[in-house]
Specification:
By secondary structure, the protein is mainly alpha-helical. Helix content is 49%, strand content 11%. Residues 113-140 are annotated as: Disordered.
Length: 473
């Protein structure tokens, strides 16, 4: 192993940071941390028509939210185009590449012939050994690499093992287009070399690219980085991941109320494991992660498992830390801004007090905010359909009796209100649920909530009595 591992994450800014890209970034970051190395960030923005500044900003924001930090400034591939041209021309001077003047019509003819003969389309090398002096006047040639014609190119992959590619299938591919723009295949090699990248960790859809890129490394006499092609993520049904499975931008997961540390834990387990450990802290993941332990087979994304894991993380969080996390996440949640606007000092204090009961019932921050809505709801409460059903005439009589008990209380806390409710149950011969359910509906407008005694304690005497009285009236 070299003195220091240098990994890189190289997204294209043609959209948000999707979940597969986030896992690739995570594996690079974990491996760099595990080995005491560093992870660099390169924005592969050579596709000028599809690359946008908004997408670049979204990628940086997504990585920052996940806590996947990188060393130095992000590098723009587009800004390095002159360097890519220089290397392509250097390869021509070395006799390792050549100018090709084949016309679009000639290239189409080659493709048609290959199809007719049942072969994959390949460039036939017609300019490989010709002199540029034979070029048509004013023709702008593309530069093609001289790929080896015989034998095979072998990729020594840390995940996939040794993979060999027949050189006849690689053909003399273009590294610099006739308009002077480098191809992705070429730009990646030059950038990785110049950035000192020692390990390339990316999706296994790039495995065939690895063979072509190895040809360029060898032609320049550069060391080929270690490569690790990780399996793609599939949906729970085994089909290629799509938006219906969860192939969404990372910002969508924030809006769905997932904690970044829970999402990282879940992503790490997609294709990699450490024994039977399901829940892992970031330091544990860094300590245990090794790229060689990643599975070859595709991993399956399962929302139910992610949600369950997120719930584990929320319940394990300190109440104050979870409150702070909710506060910083509310602007990203559906209707979160409305909730935030209603949180005055009193409501914030009530929310913190309610946190132990709220987090036991929620798997996401969206569910947490939804469960806490009764704290900021305006009087008189809008009842949901189930709450309306509960509050019939019998239930309102129960509320009247409860109101009388509560008004007689000295101290007001979860213990004293529970004593009052149990006393009412004894006096009336009703089961506890027959009293708790109408109280819950009156206090929260819903049929489900944290424990009703906790709700009474959180809302306090004045607000609780007023909400109960609203429903009697």
């Amino acid at each position: 192993m070299p003195d220091k591992v240098v990994a890189r994450f190289a997204p294209s800014p043609t959209g948000f940071l999707h979940i597969g890209g986030a896992r690739t970034a995570l594996f690079n970051w974990l491996y760099a941390r595990h080995t005491g190395g560093e992870m660099l960030l390169r924005i592969e923005d050579t596709d000028r028509e599809r690359s946008t500044e908004a997408a670049t900003a979204a990628i940086l924001d997504g990585l920052s939210w996940l806590g996947l930090t990188w060393q130095g400034e992000p590098i723009s591939q587009f800004e390095r185009a002159q360097r890519h041209r220089d290397v392509a021309e250097e390869l021509v001077r070395l006799g390792k590449a050549y100018y090709c003047y084949a016309t679009p019509a000639e290239l189409e003819e080659m493709r048609e012939k290959a199809r007719a003969e049942g072969r994959p389309p390949r460039y036939d090398g017609r300019w490989r050994d010709r002199s540029p002096s034979e070029a048509p006047e004013d023709a702008q040639g593309a530069i093609r690499i001289k790929a080896p014609a015989q034998g095979e190119t072998i990729v020594h992959d840390l995940v996939q093992g040794e993979v060999s590619f027949p050189n006849k299938d690689l053909d003399d591919f273009i590294i610099l287009r006739s308009d002077g723009n480098p191809t992705y295949m070429h730009a990646v090699v030059v950038d990785d070399h110049d950035m000192g990248v020692t390990h390339i960790i990316r999706g296994d859809d790039h495995l065939t690219n690895a063979a072509r890129q190895t040809v360029i490394y060898n032609a320049m006499g550069w060391a080929v980085p270690k490569m690790a092609h990780i399996p793609l993520i599939h949906g729970a049904d085994g089909a290629k991941l799509s938006k219906r499975h969860g192939a969404l931008g990372v910002e969508a997961y924030r809006a769905m109320g997932y904690l970044p540390e829970a999402l990282l834990n879940y992503l790490a387990r997609l294709g990699w494991s450490h024994g039977d450990d399901e829940v892992m802290s970031i330091p544990e993941m860094i300590e245990w992660f090794d790229i060689a332990d990643v599975n070859k087979g595709a991993a399956r994304f399962d929302f139910a498992k992610l949600e369950a894991l997120n719930g584990v993380y929320m319940r394990a969080m300190d109440d104050r830390a979870l409150f702070d996390r909710l506060m910083e996440t509310l602007p990203h949640l559906p209707a979160g801004e409305v909730f935030l606007a209603r949180l005055d000092t009193t409501a914030k204090a009530r929310l913190q007090q309610a946190m132990p009961g709220l987090k036991e019932r929620a798997k996401t921050l969206v569910e947490l905010a939804d469960g806490a809505y009764f704290i900021v709801a305006d009087r008189p409460l809008q009842l949901d359909e189930k709450a309306k059903t509960i509050l019939d005439s019998d239930a309102r009589n129960v509320l009247k009796a409860a109101l009388a008990k509560f008004r007689a209380l000295g101290d007001w806390n979860a213990e004293t209100v529970e004593v009052a409710v149990r006393s009412l149950a004894e006096d009336s011969g009703l089961k506890l649920g027959k009293i708790a359910q109408p109280l819950r509906a009156a206090l929260t407008g819903r049929s489900t909530s944290p424990g009703v005694f906790d709700v009474l304690a959180v809302l306090g005497r004045e607000e609780s009595l007023a909400r109960i009285a609203d429903q009697i009236d």
